[in-house]
Structure formats: structure tokens, C-alpha cells
Amino acid sequence: MSTPRPQxxxxxxxxxxxxxPGRVRKRLDAEPDxxxxxAWTFEEDRWLIAAGDERVELRGDxxxxxxxxxxxxxxxLTPKCFHVVACISVLSTVSANASEETIxxxxxxxxxxxxxxxxxxxxxAKDPQVDVTDEMRSAAKLAQSAVAAVLRVGASRAGLLVQSxxxxxAHQCRExxxxxxxxTLLRIVEGGGxxxxxxxxxxxxxxxxxxxxxxxMSLTVMKQPSAPKWLVGQARRTFDPIDVRKLEGVCxxxxxxLSGYAGVCVYLQGGGMAGEDLFTVNELRPGDSxxxxxxxxxxxxxxxxxxxxxxxxxxxxxxxxxxxxxxGRLGKGKTTRWAVQSERAGTARxxxxxxxxxxxxxxxxxxQRSLMSDAQRHGGWYLIAFDxxxxxxxxxxxxxxxxxxxxPWRLRIAIDDVQLAYRENLSLLARxxxxxxxxxxxxxxxxxxxxxxxxxxxxxxxxxxxxxxNSSSSETNSTAEKTNDARPQIAFPPxxxxxxxxxxxxxxxxxxxxxxxxxxxxxLGDDQSRHLLPSDGLDSLRRRLNGLAMGGRVAVPxxxxxxxxxxxxxxxxxxxxxxxxxxxLLAISASHSSNRERIGGKRMVTDTLPIEESFLACSHYLxxxxxxxxxxxxxxxxxxx
Length: 641
Fold this sequence. Notes:
By secondary structure, the protein is α+β, with helices and mostly antiparallel strands. Helices cover 33% and strands 22% of the residues.
């Protein structure tokens, strides 16, 4: 397993960029990823980088570079050295929540937004409030200016000076207590870096959402006397006592983050109340996918005992003195008490709590939670459980007939990594047509009928198996008829306790009984095509917002251009007048902040919004419309009762 590269303080990176001569900055702007091609070697407590004829040395304090003393180069020009800045510019910046170290002490309880009505977290009246200080307002104003600078030129074209502005704003936000806003700004810097380097992990939509989120938080802090606690954030996660005496393991899934962390997440349920949120126990460390299986098979320190993750997710536990954070992560401090009470072999899986609800209500639950902030949502908020019959492979997915669904669904690979078992296990499932399984998976909000498969169990006895495959699809009915007489069954090893965590446990042929014929030719392909779904009609607005985030104001067509008129006409013809008006507002703001514009052949004075506020208005409308539309499309996949 390779040693992860160090992280760097955002303030130090900003200072280094600002101290560079202009000619050196231009050189690095032209080759932002040049250091990735140099030879990086870890020796003892330092990194050595061969930069041509020069040699760069990086040291860190617990893996974090925080001062100029940690940086050296054989060219002796540090801190104005091109080689050093090229190396540190490809490192990830350390954020306030990057470390998994947390405190296990009582704090202010966080109150979730009501779940019976899909409301935005910003208007939830019961959220704990934090008084806004002058330092916070000053930092928020600097953050707004930094985001506006990114929007003017575009993240993919933002030079080192623009990046330095965002980094300084992030540092000031965190110093003033705006932890969440500071971390969002750091994600913007890293997201822009991935775009400029053309990495596979680059995502324009995620960058757009981060820019909009940073603007929304900045405006709230600048204009309100107080702000919700979730919006302000915390430097270190706090844990509050909870009255839970029993936990039931649900499943486990691997975790790989863009910030270089790897490990495993175990989902647990407390009690059997319908609609109850899940709790999580995470074991994360800096590393790559090889660390995932070590975390899964190794012991997790819980109070005074150590329990393997693969056993924890399959057991019933008696617990005392539990604490939990606002997002449902359980504390593992020495004062907590954990004991494996019993194994769960033979009991129905994924059938308790909210997983016992009808499929339609589970989907409603996921979309309600999607409107909340990350700090308010419990881990596993996106999970649903359902019964299904395997139909066969379909591209890079497994086609299944789902109980209560009107059309077949696709089970997707959650993380396509050679060290993980997702692809291998789904390929094996695709060779078992007619197999009835109980599934738990991550609902894909933007892809109706598609779920990232997390775990499977045998189809539980209490279900009416005759209802499975009751789909309007002729493909589903024909397959069900062929396999109804001798349907395959699951025979997992006893130590699995009836559950296979698809990304962590490896299935074998002997785990299935009644397969008539095995074919090695049946494998998952690389086709990532999706169901043919209706469009929400907002592609033009989405395209312009992504273009603005990546390429700046020049990426937005001019107000009088044929492209703009055509896109606006399409929106008006589809009766999306608000979207058409917002698209026009975005075009005006992109050309001038406040200027004389020619509209409809007449010259008139228009007081337009700044580009950042127009961008925020369009982003908020797009997100709200998209969530509503995606929910309606998902519900079309459910049989009406």
C-alpha cells in the first residue's frame, strides 16, 4: 500500500502563490499538473521529488505541511521556487473535517428538519441558531468576492492568483468560525484543480453545487443576525448522549474518498420504529482501496472492546452510554459499552424500521432527506430495501424485477475498483436468472430505476414471492414463468449470517443452489447507458450554469445571440417561463453588472443582479425543480395501489 502524500495548509499555499514572481506564476498556470509527472519517493518522514535536475523535499507535521520550514529545494530559491510551488499545488488542502479524530463529549443537540414535509433546511424553524459576529460577516463577504472572482473567469481558467484569493477566504472563514463555508471553498479549489488537470474525478455539476452552496452560506451570514448551526459547522464533530439500548446490524459498505481516505462504514438500526434513521460506525484512515479490506476484517475499537466490522454489521448488540453526532455517527469513546448479544442467522434481513415500509414511502423518505444539509442527514439516508428477482445482465448492471415496481430496475456497481468485489459479485448474480433476493442499495436520485447495490440476503419467508416479477414488462413475465418451478436459492456461508456485503464479501458458485447452467461468457460489460427517461426540459439552464462555473462569463451566450434566443424560446414553448426569465437574467448579468442593454429591439436601462447572485438564483431554481422532477419519475416506477 502506497504512503499517502501530505496535505498542506490553505494559508501557507496562498502565501507561497502570492510570493511567486509573475513569470513563475504564468509558467505554472501553463503547466498546472507538471509535478504529477515527477518522481515522488517517500523516505522515513519526508517526501523527495525529483524535479528534473533539482530535488524538492517536503516534510509534514502529522502529514500536514504548515510552515515554510517544511519546504526545501536544491535550487535554493524557496519560497519563490517554481519546483516547490508546483509540488504543493497538486497536494490536497487540509480541511477542518478531514481527520477522523473526533471528541466524544456532550454538546448542543441538533434538531432535524421535519420529515413529513419536504422543506429546505434553511427555513426549518427549529434549527439551533448561532449569533453572527462581525468577524463572520467580514469572512463571508470575502468568500462571496472570491466565488464571484471564480465565476468571472471560470474554475478551469482560474489562475494561481484567483486560487490564492479563494484559499485566503477559506482560511479567514475557518478562523472566524465558519467551518462549513471554509471547507466548501477548499472543495472549490480542489474541484477546479481536477478540471484543469482533466482528471477522471472532475465533475462540473459538483463544482457548480459547491459554488452555489458557498454563495448561499455567505449571503445568509452577511444578511442575517443569526445562522443555523449546521450552516456554521464545527471544527471537530461533537457527540451527544442518546437513549438507545439495543442496536441491530444492517450491512457494511466500502468507502473511498477523493481526499485520500479509505475504510468501511457499518450501518446499524436502533429499535424497530418505522421511519427511524440509521446509525453509522466508520473506520477510516488515509490510504487507498487496499485499506478497505483491512478495515473490514480488522477490529474496530468500541468502548473497551474491539469488534470486527464484518461481525458488527451482522449482529445484535446491547449498548450503554451511547453518544451520536447530528448525522448519526456513533461515538466510540471509552465510556460507551458494547456487547454482541446474539447472532442473527435465520432472521429476516432488511425488514425492520423504515425498510419495512412500502417501497413508495421509502423513496419519499430519500427525497425528503435530499433537501436537508449534510449535517442534518443521518448516514444511509439514501438507502432503500426491496425484494427482487434476477433477470440477467444489462450492460454494466444486473436487470431485476422488483416487487411493487412497474418496470425492471438495474442494479449498478457502486465503486468500480479492482480491489473491491462489486463487479465480480454482480457478474455472478447476473448468471442466476430467477434468483429471488432481498436487496439494500443506494437510490440514484438522477437515474430512476437504478440502484447502487450495497448488500443482498435471501428473499425473506414472510413475503409473497408470487408478487415478484409482477411487472408490466413482457421480459419480466417470461423470465418469471421459466424459473417459477425450480427457482435458484442462496446458500451463504454460516459466518455471513445470511448477508452478503456486495463490495466486501466475495460470492462463489457454491453459494447458489439450483442454477441450471453456469456460463463463463455471461459477464458485465462496460456499457453505462441508462433507462430512457423523459427530460425535465432544463438542459439549457443546466448547461449554462455548468459552463459559467467552468469557463466563466464568456461561456454564457450573449443576450441577443441566436443560441440564447433559441434556448429561451424552447423554455417558453414548454411553459417553463420562470426558467426562461432566469436564463435571460443570467445572460444579462454575464455581460454587464449594471449597464444599458438592448432588449426586444429597444434600448433601456436595467439594474441587473451581480453575476454571483444571478448564478445562485438559477442554481436554486434548478436544484428545486430537478429534485421534484426526479421524485415524480421515480414514483412512476412504482405500481399504484
